[in-house]
Write a structure and sequence with these properties.
By secondary structure, the protein is an all-alpha fold. The protein is about 75% helix and about 0% strand. It has one domain: Farnesyl Diphosphate Synthase. The site of magnesium ion has 4 residues, from helix 5.
């Protein structure tokens, strides 16, 4: 196990039991008699990854003194929705590797992957109807609406170098921060609870999720598949103008701007992200984006510091740091 992975495992220790229950519930929920489907769901379980969002439901519950018997199920629902979005995202991105194993669209094909994503999404909402409160399905249906809007906006703004930084950040927020925010709010509030605490924890999740996505966008440019465990460079291949690229472009001379646009659009170029990095076009963009992620994490850390001292609070502090330091 790498030292970063071991660090994350130690951070999740206060909610080990809840995570075990969450995994059991998730495993049961996606069982299916069809051999074809169970082959795929076993594959997807192999790429379960960090399960940070599910862990945040549990940690935020613990850190705010709001743990119920249903928190593990809420965490499983959040993770199933996350898995569904990743299966669909990999189709959209034409990705090949996720969490060191072949993406569903690669191991099978796009058609089957669309359907598996739908299956996971349906199973998530089926479980939410069995809970004693509607809060989980209410918050998560609104969250998936935002996720889809974020992805549609992102697709519409491909190759759009005239986007503002706020617009780029709004896309990151909708597609990624919204689910982090929902996970933290549900942890702190489910089954109904204190709305004000829920709002505070929502903001905390939003800041962590936004920082996570910005760090992810930097890794997509500078990381390797071996290191990160998933296909990298896909943002540039797909024409997605992420924050580091946008900032670099905004600060570049006309000549460099033209070269950057060429790297994005010229036909038959190999490894466009590497070209951007190697030709030195990204320097300031990467720095500014990483600084933005650090600022968001600092704001999240201030919120965490307002929680009562507990092992779960210490884990949240560590996770905030992990979001910046991770290489996977
Ligand atoms: C990862 O972005 C993508 C997301 C966090 C959200 C994807 C959401 C959808 C495709 C909508 C799916 C909707 C339903 C209802 C299932 P990324 O490509 O920047 O990150 P990556 O490097 O992990 O692929
Ligand atoms: Mg992707």
């Amino acid at each position: 196990m790498s030292s970063t992975r071991a660090w994350l495992t130690s951070l999740l220790a206060p909610v080990d039991d809840g995570l075990t229950r969450m995994r059991e519930i998730l495993g049961r929920q996606i069982e299916e008699p069809s051999a074809a489907v169970s082959d795929m769901t076993s594959h997807v379980e192999r790429f379960r990854g960090k399960q940070l969002r599910g862990a945040l439901v549990l940690l935020c519950g613990e850190a705010t003194g709001n743990t119920t018997d249903e928190h593990a199920a809420v965490a499983a629902i959040v993770e199933m929705i996350h898995l569904a979005t990743l299966v669909h995202d990999d189709i959209l991105d034409g990705a090949e590797v996720r969490r060191r194993v072949a993406c569903v669209n690669q191991r099978w094909d796009n058609q089957t992957a669309v359907l598996l994503g739908d299956f996971l999404y349906a199973r998530a909402f089926a479980l939410s109807t069995e809970l004693s409160s509607r809060l989980c399905s209410r918050i998560l249906s609104e969250t998936t609406r935002r996720l889809c809007v974020g992805e549609i906006e992102q697709a519409n703004r491909r190759y759009d170098f005239d986007m503002t930084q706020d617009e780029a950040e709004a896309i990151c927020g909708a597609k990624t921060a919204s689910l982090y925010a929902a996970a933290c709010e549900l942890g702190a509030r489910y089954p109904g609870g204190n709305e004000e605490v829920g709002r505070q924890m929502y903001d905390l999740g939003w800041q962590l999720g936004l920082a996570f996505q910005i760090a992810d966008d930097c890794l997509d440019l500078t990381g390797t598949t071996e290191e990160v465990g998933k296909s990298v460079g896909t943002d540039v291949e797909d024409g997605k103008i992420t924050l580091p690229v946008l900032v670099a472009y905004q600060r570049a001379s006309d000549d460099v701007r033209a070269r950057m646009r060429d790297i994005f659009t010229a036909p038959d170029l190999e490894d466009r992200a590497r070209l951007l990095v190697e030709q030195g076009h990204l320097g300031a963009g990467l720095e500014v984006a990483r600084l933005r992620a650090r600022t968001l994490v600092a704001q999240a850390s201030e919120r965490i510091a307002n929680l009562p001292e507990s092992p779960a609070r210490r884990s949240l502090e560590g996770i905030a740091e992990f979001v910046l330091e991770r290489s996977f």
